[in-house]
Specification:
By secondary structure, the chain is an alpha/beta fold. The protein has 13 helices and eleven strands. It folds into two domains: about 110 residues, Gyrase A, domain 2; about 250 residues, P-loop containing nucleotide triphosphate hydrolases (Rossmann fold, 3-Layer(aba) Sandwich), CATH 3.40.50. Helix content is about 45%, strand content about 15%. The radius of gyration is 29 Å and the shape is flat. Bound molecules: guanosine-5'-triphosphate (GTP), potassium ion and magnesium ion. The site of potassium ion has 5 residues, from loops. Exhibits a very high intrinsic GTPase hydrolysis rate. Involved in the addition of a carboxymethylaminomethyl (cmnm) group at the wobble position (U34) of certain tRNAs, forming tRNA-cmnm(5)s(2)U34.
Length: about 425
Amino acid sequence: MDTIFALASAQGKAGVAVIRLSGPLAHSAAANLTGSVLPPRGMRVRTLHAGDGSRLDDGLVLTFRAPASFTGEDVAELQIHGSTAAVNVVMQCLSEADGLRLAEPGEFTRRALENGKMDLTQVEGLADLIDAETEAQRKQAQTILAGELGTLAERWRRDLIRAASLLEAVIDFADEEVPTDVTPEVRDLVTGVMQDLQREAEGVQIAERIRTGFEVAIVGLPNAGKSTLLNALAGRKAAITSEYAGTTRDVIEVRMDLAGLPVTLLDTAGLRETEDYVENLGIELARKRAEDADLRVFLTENPSELGVSMLSEDIQVLPKSDLREDTEGGISGKTGQGIDHLINHISRVLGVRSTSHGIATRERHRVALNNANTSLASALAVLESGPDLYDIAAEEMRTAIRALEALVGRIGVEDLLDEIFSSFCLGK
Ligand SMILES: Nc1nc2c(ncn2[C@@H]2O[C@H](COP(=O)(O)OP(=O)(O)OP(=O)(O)O)[C@@H](O)[C@H]2O)c(=O)[nH]1
Ligand SMILES: [K+]
Ligand SMILES: [Mg+2]
């Protein structure tokens, strides 16, 4: 096994930079730099020197001994001054040492997975945590990273193993008198797991939104003040505004943290009948993106004239409230009136939606959960035909168990790993 190293902290100027080494030579390579033997675990302040004795930097050297480390291997961390030059010179020294090489993206985590330090869902949770920008994303990632999906999968797996073994006991004693009918217990175990699987699979759609962001589209007539409103919400001039109707044509996207939720606001072309070819392309795009969005803000007196269907949770606000006598239900991107109210309204609607999910977060999870569920549905159907078909029911249960094992990465995921780890940054 190669010993790998990489900069674990971000590139660029910082107080401290962390270079991590993992593998059989991690401790000796660090000791070569410090010129002294390091303890198998612990930390020491040391001066780092190059092979010719020239001084590189002072730093804190941490050592972890296998298997009690992030990767499960011997690990050393060099915490040096966070300058580009200091990092470069130390990395250069490491790359010249025999048996050491630069890590590939995600390679530390990949080793942690291979050494059983985390399961595949935790790897995904770690990737999400590193990408997390908002509170909702952080919390969701922490749940997965803590291994809660793996724990659930293990519980389902135990229940299904028990159910399958009950059936197998009946099969094994086929010629003798079996004292009890096992069907009720098997049925209870299987239906219990199926309910959990279904609830988790249904929650994935919302969890995906928390990972990738909710889309909220602003729609209205031309000149309603959509772009002005977007700019007010974003706190910067993201879109061009003007007194000419038909200013916005492309969809303008602004990513925001809205009360802890990741939201992408969409400013769209004003919706009207027009002969202008390019404006029409914009209007077509506006309608499509608005229909696909998670929520729509109708900036208009009359939502029905826009040709975009308004769903029950969608929000209507009256434009340019500063020009109105009655400001009730109105908003003004110009004066800021009603903006806080709109933000609260959006985050309330999305907040309610985002609490109604379970632990599974990805399409990959949903597929595995549904696969398991399909096999269990077949198992239940076969079970009703009586003991003659118990072996088929047990086989369906084992198929479901294998789907759950794929969920946590215990089996059949080799082809997935490259894809998952390529999304990791270097040094993780
Ligand atoms: N008084 C007042 N004027 C506004 C308000 N919002 C926008 N305006 C003005 O209305 C005009 C149109 O504003 P935009 O933000 O470009 O409107 P839009 O809906 O994006 O227009 P299109 O992109 O052309 O569909 C500009 O002259 C703005 O200054 C508002 O709340 N109050
Ligand atoms: K305009
Ligand atoms: Mg506009």
